[in-house]
Amino acid sequence: MIGCVSCHLGNPHEADKEEAHESMVLIPGNLSDADQTCGKCHPDELNKIKHSLMTTNSGLVAVDKFIFGEADSPDHSYDIRDIQYSAADQHLRDLCANCHLGAEKSEFGKITQLSRGGGCNACHLNYSDEAIFELEEYLKSGKKYLPKVHPSTDIFMSNLHCFGCHSRSSRISTNYEGWHETLLDIDHIANKDGFKVFEDERVYSYEGEDVHHAAGLLCIDCHSSHEVMGDGQDYLHAEKAVSLNCADCHYKHKPNTIAFDELDTESSLVFLHRDYKHVDKRILMVNKDGHPLVNTYVDENEDVFLIGKKDGKIHPVKRQSDVCSRDHAHQSISCSACHAQWAPRCIGCHNTFDENYENGYDLLDKKYKTGSWVEHVYEFSADMPAMGVRVTDNGRVIEPAIPGMIMTIDHESFDKNSINKSTFHRLYAPTSPHTIAKKTRDCKSCHSNPAAIGYGQGQLTYDISAGHGNWVFQPVYEMNPADHLPEDAWIPFLIQSQAKIVSTRTDFRPFTVEEQKQILLVGACLECHGDDSDVMVQSLESGLTPLLLKLSDACILPRE
User: Fold this and answer.
1) Which residues, in sequence order, are bridge partners of residue 153?
2) Taking the mean position of all CA atoms in its chain, how far away is CA 20?
3) What b/e readout covers 10-37, taking b as 16+ CB neighbours within 10 angstroms?
4) In contact, 428 and 402? CB cutoff 8 Å
5) Residue 544: per-residue pLDDT
6) Can you give the pLDDT at residue 326?
7) What are the sequence ranges of the domains in the chain?
8) What is the Cα–Cα distance from 209 to 499, expressed in whole angstroms?
9) I need a surface site. Which of 29, 47, 446, 463 has the fewest CB within 10 A?
10) pTM of the prediction?
11) H or E segment to which residue 27 belongs
12) Rounded mean pLDDT of 110-136?
């Protein structure tokens, strides 16, 4: 049994109340005292957390300082707790610095949608109904009634533990449940179906839940402690820290596995705490870094099963479909590029510093102030994501992309002596939408969809005249006077972009003009040939080049 002092500290050998309670920690688990509390028993885990992006927010800080012109690259390392008061730093303090594990949990109570930070508590604190009742009685009594039931710190995390921070920015938590943030007021959705109001009074519309959420899977059913707490290494951006891949479960040829008696200590403890019984079965192992998914097993027929951490339900895991595994034309495309139903889009963001803003609040120092950066947003929308190219050591991967920073920064409002009075930026960002569906997007939704290619929403028409084809694009949005592109676009239509910075990552870019032409070449074929036609099916297996050698007279290709 663990006594009070192990977590709450104090002086156990003192008989005097005041002396016994000296240096006592009311809410243990905050990173400010974790070395003396949680870290006494869990030093390895604490070390990992200190390096985690959820603690440092390094990528968040790096991109913001880069776009403000205070750094020459978005790939420098930072810790959000160390930022000062430059324009970018103040921007982070005013609008962003709430969601990091170093933020203190200062009030008793369970984790809610509004919770931010709290160190170890952020994931591990749980209140039973009895513990909630006892806490309420304690508070109502003016802290004279002593609670008889203590909350627990355990490994039984719910999605709510993730929600507070991960419902912001790319909004993974809400996406996963099928909800998309709108700019509507509560009054506008009264008595209307398909909308939901969360605890912070943001209004969401229902766009379609992730297939894994529909099956009842928690975030931690896929993202284990190895990923969530980190591995002790410093990563520049979130996608580098995430090692799990769809193919780890939905494998192509043969699953990558490990035996129970080969598990590392951390995985063995989780296995035992959850009272799993499959000690005689092989366990799935993530290909990228080799960490085991202890809630999975492979039977004698090499069928994979996942044990839901929420309810212990056994979920059969289907291996990769034949369509995916035999498709040689799309081997460089990520799973979510085809299977993501939708992704959030935000355009027309204007950032200005209001020195007279009376309700300013420093999210890092937790104090009110006068003056604040204010963000004005033009539009939120939800649609199938655009596509971008991740350049890796092994080649390239096509991944979903969304507008990351289509924004104007009014530098002069913060610093009257600023060299740049105002700057405009058009950056897209890679995303993992967490809106996966069994059904994929169709061929035209990529190959003749202007938004998917990066031109923005609009009408993309294949015009045939004089025996030649020509693509014509009519955008929905007006041209932005700053760069003469449609408001929601990433790149110009079939013209090389003149922008030097186009992405929030140095290894992620839009399609080149040549790549755009290749995509639209297939789009031209799809004008006559359906997705399931013999010609298009054959192109998936052997590529388009052999088919171009035997065109019929009816085939009209795009003009070079």
Assistant:
1) 125
2) 45
3) eeeeeeeeeeeeeeebebbbbbebbeeb
4) yes
5) 87
6) 67
7) 4-82+100-166, 172-215, 220-324, 325-430, 444-501+510-548
8) 36
9) 463
10) 0.94
11) none
12) 97
